[in-house]
Structures are given as C-alpha cells and as structure tokens.
C-alpha cells in the first residue's frame, strides 16, 4: 500500500484519533489485515496420532472420573495456530472421548451439534432423545443440535471414539444454549436396533409412508453403520473404476447433509493410489479409520495410521496417498459455507490444473 | 337448481343460442356437470385377475410376434367405466407385458414415463439409456420420461410383468413425443449390476461425492430390488408395531418421488390385519405381489391373489384385508395432485372418523 | 409400420381377441396413435373477436338473468377442434363474463382456480374469501382454488371481463369439488384497497415481517393493477432496448407463478415490431388488451384487436406482430408442464434457428 | 458444579496434564464457559449518536484523504464489549463512510458482502459491477459478495452513509478474499436508472420473462428506493391497524433475504407507540432514519435521533418507543442463524408473555 499523505498535521490527527477512541470508533485506514487477497488462516495443518490419543485417553480413564456437570472425559484437539483455543480448526471442535467399562455420562443437550465416529472397539450406547444407539467401529452416530444425549458402557472394556462439534461456529454466532437432562443418572437402555434405524435405514430410497414428523434442519437417521458403509464403498469403487471413491452421509428422506453445520464424508483409497489434490474454503477434520499412508496438507506430509486425527485449515490443499488401502472419515463445515454463498473450491491435481484458467472460483 | 325464468321469448333465445354456436361459444348456464360437489369419477373399481393376465399373456406369446414399431406384446387394462379408453384409471395406463425366451423388444423413448413391476419370474434385461437392469420378482424398474429403453430375454423361459405409464396425463397435456432407437436390434448387454445401482444403491443415506450429474425431475436410481424392499418392510413392521407397514420408493439423493408423475409404494399387511380405510384425489393402481386376501374399493370387495391388478378410482375409499400376509404394490398420480395443490385425503377408518370434523380436507 | 405377420390363424386370433374384450383388456399392437413423434393436438388455432364477445355478452345480459346455482352469465370459448368440449384449448377454460349494473353473483368455491382479466370498463367488485377487489381495465384478479368468490356491480353500467380456469386439468385429474357460499346473497362490500394489496403490493421486494400466514400453492396477492403493470412494462422496455418486453405475474413473497396451474404474462410489442416465433408444450390463451396487429398461430395469421381472445394449442408456433403498440395478456398451463418435467420449448425465430441444432429440446 | 474428586495424586495429574499440553490437547473438564445455559454474549448494547458520527466524519473528510488501497474513509463502530475488535456486534461490521464532493473511491471486491443505508443527503453514485446506482436519503443499496464496487461524488457537497458488512462471519469462516478493480480510477458513470432497477423494480410480483441469469445466493435488485419504502410502510400501517409496521427487504424474483448473510428490515412506529419487546439469537444493528424516541436494548434505554447507530447483541431484548413517528432500519444476521437451525426467538411483550409456556424456543 502506498504511503498516505495526510492533509493534517500530527497534532490535529492525534486529536481526531483521540475523539474516535472516546466514541468507540476506529478509522478503517489504520486497520490492516481485514481484507486479504486470500484467507489469512491462523489454524495450521496438524496431526494428532491415534496411538497417543488412545494412550492419553486410557491414562485419563485411570486418573479422572466422569462426573455430573455437562462434562465428559474428553480430550480436545487444540490447533497450535489458534492461540490456545480448544479447536482443531477455527470452525470445528474435535476430541476423543473415553468411557471405561460400567461408566455412564448422563444426559444433557446443547445447541452445538455433535457427531461421534468410532475407530475401534464397541459396546457403548448413546441415547439420543431416549433412542438407544449402539456404537461400534466404523459407525457414525449423530447427536444433533438440542437433542438430549447420554452415553453408557455396560461392558467391562473401555471404549474411545472421536467427537466433532460445530461449537466454534455456534459460539461465534452467540447462540450457545445448554441444559442438563432430567436425571442425574444415565438411562442405560439398549435395544436390538434404534428406532431411528428401524424407520429410516431400510434400504436406499425406501422411506416410510407414515413415519414420525421429520425433524427440521437435520437427518432423522442418527446412526450410519460400518457394514453398510463398507459395502457401499466397495460398490462405488467397482462402479467408478478409479483408485478412490468417496461417499457423503446424507438425510435419507430429504437428501442434503446430515446436519446443517457439518458435512460427513468417507473416502476409500486403494493401495498405491491417491486422491486428487484440492482445496476449499472452510475447515476440515480427518480421522483415519483403516490403513496407513500419507496425508498431505498444505506444505506438510504426515504419516497416517488408524485413529489419527488431522486438521485441514481453510484453503489448504490436501490429499490422501494410501500405502495400504485406506478409509478416511472427514467432517467439514461445508454446509455453512454453501448456505452463505462462500464456498470456493480449487482442483490442484494435474487434471484440475489443465482445466483451470487461473481463477480459483 | 331452481328453474331459471328467462327474460326473453323462445325465438329470441333461439336466435341468441344460434349466434353462440356460430361463434364457437357455449353458454355456461346450459352446461351441467362441470362443477360437482365431489369428483364425478367415471372409472370404476375393477380387478384384473393375475391368473387370467398370465394365461392371456401366454396365449398372446404363442400367437403374436413382437415386432419393430414402437409396439410391445402388451395387454392394456381397460377400465370398464372409461368408455373404451385403454386406461386402468383415468390418469394411469396399466398393462402386462409378455416376453418369450430369446425375444427382444428394441429401443425407443417417449415422454410418458413408465415403470415395470415384476410379480414372478426373472431373466429379462431392460436397458435404460444403455444401462442393463436385470428384472426379477418383486423388483421395481423405472424407465423415466424420454429415456431410451429396450428389453431382451436371453433365457429360454418367458417372462411377464406389469407396466404402468402416466400416458393419460401426458396425452391430456398434449405433450407426447416418441422416438425410435438408433437400431432395429435390441442391445443384449447384461452386467453384474447396473451402473445406476452401483452409484446410488450403496446404503441408505450414503451417496457419491462425485457422481454423474443428476437427472432433473426423477430419481437417478432405476431399480429397487426385492431383497432390499423385503428387508426394509420387515424392519419397518417391527418398528411400527402395527399390523401393516408401507414404504415409498424415492430418489435416494434428493428425496421425493421416483418420478414427477407417479408415486410408488408397497404395503405389507400381516395375516388377519387390514390397512385403514382411506381415500384421496387421483387414481391408483394396485398390484398384488404376495399373499391372498380382500381388497375393498368403494362399495366392492375383491378377492385378491398374486398378480392381480386393481383399479382404485379417484376419491374411492380402499383398504387391504390380508388373509395370509400380503405385499401389495401401488402406483398413484399423487405427485401430480400435490404439485398442483389438488391433493385431498380422507381417513375413513374408525381412528380417522373420530378425528374428523366433517370436512374432507 | 411394417405389416405384422401373425403366427396364428384368424380364428385363433379372433378367439384370443374375444377373450381380451371379455376381460377388459386391449392389445397394444392393435392400438394406434398413442405414442406419436410429436403431440397429436386436437385443438386448433382460433380467434374469438372481442367485438362479437362484447355484443353477445350484452345480448345475453338483456335476455338471460344471473341466478343462484353456481352459474354465472358466462360464454365459454369452445375450440372448434375439441369436439364440442367447452374449452379454449385442451387444458384451459376461457370465457367472457357479463354483469349488468346492480347485478350480483353470489359466493361459491371450487377446486378449479380462476383468474379474471379486464379489457375495458370498471366498477365490479370481486370478493375473494371476503376481501373486496375492485376490477378495472388492465387488472388481473385471482380467485385461487377453493377460495370463496362472488361478484357485484354496484353501478349502473354493465361490465365484461375474461375468465380463465384450469378446469380441464382439474377435471382430467378427477379432482373437482364445488361448494356454494353460506348465503344466497352476494356480499356487496367495497374498500379503498383490498387487504391482499395492503399487505403485499407495497413495493417490489418489500414484504411484511409479520403478515398473515401465507397460503400454500399460490400467491397471497390477488390483484395486479394496470397502473403498476403499465409502468413496469415501460421501465422494462427502456431497459431491454428491444422492440418488445414481457413480464410474468408472480408471488411477490416467495416468487414463482401466481397459481400452481396457470402462468400469467403480459407482452408489450412496439408499433412495427414482433415477438420471436416460438412454441412450447402446453396450451395458451391470449387476450389483446391494447393495440392492433396480427397474431400468428401455427399456419394462421389472425388480425387482432382489443378484447380478442385467441387459442394457441400445444406445440403451435406463435408470435405477435404489432401494427400499433400492442399489449397482450397470456395465460398458459406452463407451471403444470414444468412441475411434471414435460416442458419443451423451441425458438423458431431467426436467432433461434441459428442456435438450434435440430432437436427441440 | 460439584467438586470433582480425582482418583489420582497431584503429581500424577501434573504429569498427565503436561502430556496433554505437549500433544496439543486440552482436557474438557478443566475448561469452563464453553457450554452455557444461555449465550454468553460479550457485545454490549451501545449507541453511536448520529450527530457525533456526522461531525467526526466531516473532520476526517477535512484531514484524511481517500486513497487507493482497498481503503475508504470509513469510521468503524467498535462495540465496547468486544475487546477492541472493530465490530458493532460480534457478527456485523457497521460504520459510517464519508465522501467529499468530487472524491472517488475506486473499485474493489471482496467476499464479505456490504450494504449501504443513507440517512441524509444524496448525490453519490455507487457502481456495482459497473451498474451506476444513485444514493439518496432512505435508500438501501447492496454490494453483494464478490461484486466490484466503487463510489464517486460528482457534486460539491459531501455525503455520509452507513455501511454494514458481514465481515466478522466471513472472517470467522476463513473465507475472506479481496481483489482490487482493474483501474486506479473510479468509473464515474451515472444513469437515469440502474439496470438492476430497470429489470427488477417494475412492480410488486411482476418480473421479466427473459431477464438476465439470476445471481446465486442474493437478490438481483441492488437498490431499494425510499419513495417506494415510504409508500409501502404507509400502506402496511393502514392495513395492520397497529401502531407499528415492519417490512423486510427481499429478492423480488425468488423471495428470501436480499443477502445470504444479512437480513434488512425497516420499522415505522407511530408517535407514542412502541414495538413489542422481543429477543432472538444473533446480532443486530439499528439505524434511525426519521424521528426521535427511545430504543430499549437489554437493561438500557437510549435516546434516539436520526443517524444514530445502535448495537443489539444476541439474545438482548429490544424495542423502539417512538416520541414522534420513527423509521428505524435494521440489519441482522438472521439468515445465517436460520440456515444453520440456530434461530431462537422470544416475545417478551405482554401478549407474548401470556402465550409463552416458559421455554424460549
């Protein structure tokens, strides 16, 4: 920016600036960094190794109880670029939650929506507004905004899983509400199948004619089972004939994302293959379910193993390069960016580069 | 209507009416039956027994060849109330189609959309814009508006199935277009799984991230398999805890009906149970897949067996009473009525009667 | 179509055909004309001269009373190609209605929707669910499906206007309901401005924050005034810089057509200019408001004057060639065709021909 | 919250916490304030008096030039509760912009969307993607996301107006892009009417049949004129019969808010009347156009005059009490809250209190 030649002497300016400050005003011309050619992203590419998350979860399980109070035994992934904020990227909370055998986490609800993704183990039940959802490896379980949810582990073995919340977005909008459940005790019900799945997980494209009233703003299906996901990934991979295939988790009745704030996807990459390098506005959290390989984010290349959580900041190019076949789960804030007309994507692969004409949009 | 006292003598009126006729005008006050308190439906409740349809289909197979010319070996169900029009109800064409072993019906396309529902047998392949879809008992196969479609039967055994088309609606709108396929010969491809299913039949709520561009106005999934439908009906029945359960076939990506003109549903009714008596505007065609019982339509009660096709005219109450467990497939024009703001439904069961306050809407 | 060589002797075939007839079946291969390369439209291009409509309306006013009974003093335009059906095109009823001074037409409602377009005169009030709407030249007034409506003419002078209804469509769907109003007498209220306009005709893009609940399936605004339309046509013509400009009447709150079954548009064509020749599926009724010129429909060229009603059958090319500046109002069934995925348009002007590659879609 | 009894000694815990910190993890049970019963809003109710804004704008005009560099002569309203951030509420930037006679502010574009609202004066032209929009008192002018915009003041008199931007939201989503226009010079075109208005400001509910392709995510109409707004407010006030009336600025073609991130409304309150006390999630900025009175926000009561800008933080009750008749313009982030399923409203007036059952949702 060229030097500005003021029409005023410094004392005059000082006086004016003093008046601004007194009146809670700031001159735009003294501000910088507000409008940048590209997003000035503070979050950094980062990897939280699965092995460490499991080990620290287990140690916390030994030393720290699960108590009443809205809290859970949860370790939040804190992006090193975000100045201590407990967020994996600027718009997403990601964490691991650890529940020992016979522990319970009683019910509460909050406007931030949460999802649970399980990398290994099974046996915990999450009740969503009273509907008992079993959790096992590869399952995605939703606890949408303002639904009561609680967890209980009736077995002897501890269990760990990943939580992702849209908390940073809801907090930035000053819209956080929280309420404890009606009881100090967790509901320890189980059921062969959740009601949600009984109604909505029948078959692709088949929905009940007279089902319950559909909830606004989110999927009525609350659990997506690994057996289904695995089969669908296999079928899709055979259909595309490419080295990778990606599925989006959606509302089975109305289409669209499972939650108004978070998009969930899973990508299978064949051994030796890689996904195309691409970037988009908005943050993303990856979680490796199966396989090992390399995840490239921005200028960094991270080795990846099951249980790893990785942060992909806004506008950072990323891809997955599979050593052995990899399944990688992804959560992004894409529905927010799309709803607000702010989604911008760029394909940086060779194919994309050929097609591009220079502009990112 | 009270007798109208004209201000004019008869000769004056005759002169006026003559002028109207010369100018292609008609006086509203001499017309009757245009605006009736309830729909004046000409179609009648009717049943075409499955046994007769199979037998006559087979005899036609012996005597009549399948030739080039847009025609198929098809017997159209002609509602006795419709004055000879080849329609099952005033808005739907229903028919059986019979294809002998090694026969082919080459490609054509038309703006009326069609669906195929199979009651028994298997082995015919329908290609929709080149995608080979195997047909077997309980399957629903779509050939949407303006898609090329052709059938071939590579095996030795004949096969029969039901066709339903929205032809009366498209014809009433003067919007019928027809085109023969590029070849005199049917394409006899087969495939382990149609591309349509490879992309869209993975699992409930899981859709491809980078799939083909979605077709406007209809489902991208073209086949709904009986194994899936059967499993989904069973799960739904266990969930509802009622004596019957109904599923709607929908677009698995965007939700909504499979076609813009026809709604497809299937109802399973447990032995000894019955669906609620109800009526709605618009026509409906039923096809019994499994089981025997009674189908009540208006004032008639029809015995029902597999393969039966039944006509439910607009605003006629209907229900299914199952002797043994019954699966009944249904096609209606409900998407048309709903899109135009003309859907009106009435629950005539005991439960509905209690809730009703007199008005049908 | 090639001659079909049957495998059967005639007696065998006769026997089979007899069986078909007994069972209410028809063989497709003996039917013809069901699936045609282009729409087989029975309606013909036609013009009902405004002068005759006014004259015959006036004579009916002298000779025929307006009575209770759902009827009005209405002359229906009967397309000569439609075999005596009282429809202007196969999907639209068009008529003139004539009300003498101090006459009233009491309230009724029906599922077919109606619209009124006024070519000349003023002074009649139409009440829609009790909201009094004044009618004057150039105004469009809506009486949507199932709204009570009544007309009264408090002045001394008679008034004539055009009615258009979607009756053929609603009747084809067996969805006609009719109900007389609560009183034998018309409500003769007047008001400086209808409530509908008070809420929704403030200014383009400005809508009430806390207005009444919006009706489903149609515009909450029931009258579109000529002063507004005239000004908007003028502004649009200056903006486009072309010799003609067309406006669509829409729901001012949610966008989209004013009714789910009928699209309303108005075109101003400058003296000596012409609209592009085009065709589309579905029927259309034109009404000349101002100016004289020629309306070309299919192979016919009709001289046109104020008050003329013209029928444009499905898939017939049409254009307006203005001698002096013309304003032509148009109603079509386009929302129906679009909702059902059946709209097909073709630009046959020189510009369109250059762009076309042969196919109409 | 009850005191947590740890199972571990302090050295063990210290060791564990140290491991967390090393691995960029934070234990949820040591965090507080994340999930609060109601939003923990940092922004405060605040008023920036119009008189001061005009005076300081004018002094800045004397002392500070307008230069190339993405900057404008703009004073940002800084909410005293937001720790120095230049935002009026946590989700909205509000500011006054001052342009002296014969000054120009050349073109740039950015993903944050802006709107301009004029309290007094006239004569500046804002070009949006080259379309010249004159600005005068009471006008709302939009410069949507990623549209080039520039201002020029061809007259001798300075002009001041309010800018509101969604910058905090776009920045929180790491989606800020910025680009300077192709020229160092402002385009100084003027026109009798903007093209945007020529196409879309004809009349309520009348839209062009063949207009330009509609922009995604926002209104194609870029200026809402005071003459129209004033007339619409008057008509609405007569229709409601209440002491106040509120209009929303919307997309005249498709309905919905003018921008995907900001809702614009204007309320007229009659002398001596007051709007209902209410609150909702999300932030709001008020700007007084006409009249004097009191604006109540939270526990504060601010005297209000033309030109005042006021901050209404999320979930703060607010109302306008008019001394003389007041017109108050409002911008909120409601479209964001609604799109994400986070809108919660509460009517705190006597009427609302009677209807309420305790819960805010």
From TrEMBL, chains A, B, C, D:
List the molecular function annotations (GO) for this entry: dioxygenase activity
Species, as recorded? Pseudonocardia broussonetiae
The UniProt entry, under SUPFAM superfamilies, shows:
RmlC-like cupins
Keyword Oxidoreductase listed? The answer is yes
What lineage does UniProt assign to this protein's organism?
Bacteria, Bacillati, Actinomycetota, Actinomycetes, Pseudonocardiales
- What's the protein name? Cupin domain-containing protein
Domain Cupin type-2 residue range list: 101-164
Q: Which UniProt keywords apply?
A: Dioxygenase, Oxidoreductase
């Amino acid at each position: 920016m060229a030097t500005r030649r003021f029409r005023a002497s410094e004392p005059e300016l000082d006086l004016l600036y003093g008046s601004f400050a007194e009146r809670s005003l700031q001159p735009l011309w003294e501000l910088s960094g507000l409008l940048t050619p590209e997003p000035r992203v503070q979050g950094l590419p980062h990897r939280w190794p699965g092995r460490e998350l499991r080990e620290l979860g287990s140690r916390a399980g030994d030393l720290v109880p699960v108590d009443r109070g809205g809290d859970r035994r949860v370790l939040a992934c804190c992006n090193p670029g975000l100045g201590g904020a407990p967020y994996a990227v600027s718009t997403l909370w990601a964490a691991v939650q650890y529940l020992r055998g016979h522990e319970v986490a009683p019910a509460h609800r909050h406007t931030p929506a949460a999802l649970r993704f399980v990398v290994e183990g099974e046996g915990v039940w999450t009740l969503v507004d009273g509907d008992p959802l079993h959790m096992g490896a590869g399952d995605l379980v939703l606890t949408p905004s303002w639904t009561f949810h609680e967890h209980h582990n009736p077995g002897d073995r501890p269990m760990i899983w990943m939580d992702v919340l849209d908390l940073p977005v809801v907090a930035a909008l000053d819209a956080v509400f929280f309420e404890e459940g009606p009881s100090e005790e967790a509901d320890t019900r189980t059921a062969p199948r959740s009601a949600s799945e009984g109604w909505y997980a029948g078959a692709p494209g088949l929905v009940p004619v007279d089902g319950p009233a559909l909830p606004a703003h989110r999927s009525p299906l609350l659990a997506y089972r690994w057996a289904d996901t695995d089969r669908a990934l296999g079928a899709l991979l055979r259909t595309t004939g490419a080295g990778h295939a990606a599925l989006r988790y959606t509302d089975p009745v109305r289409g669209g994302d499972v939650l108004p704030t978070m998009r969930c996807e899973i990508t299978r990459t064949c051994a030796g293959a890689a996904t195309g390098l691409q970037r988009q506005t908005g943050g993303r959290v990856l979680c490796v379910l199966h396989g090992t390989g390399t995840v490239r984010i921005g200028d960094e290349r991270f080795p990846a193993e099951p249980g790893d959580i990785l942060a992909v900041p806004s506008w950072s190019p990323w891809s997955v390069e599979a050593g052995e076949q990899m399944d990688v789960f992804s959560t992004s804030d894409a529905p927010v960016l799309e709803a607000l007309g702010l989604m911008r994507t760029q394909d940086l692969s060779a194919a994309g580069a050929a097609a591009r004409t220079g502009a990112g949009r």
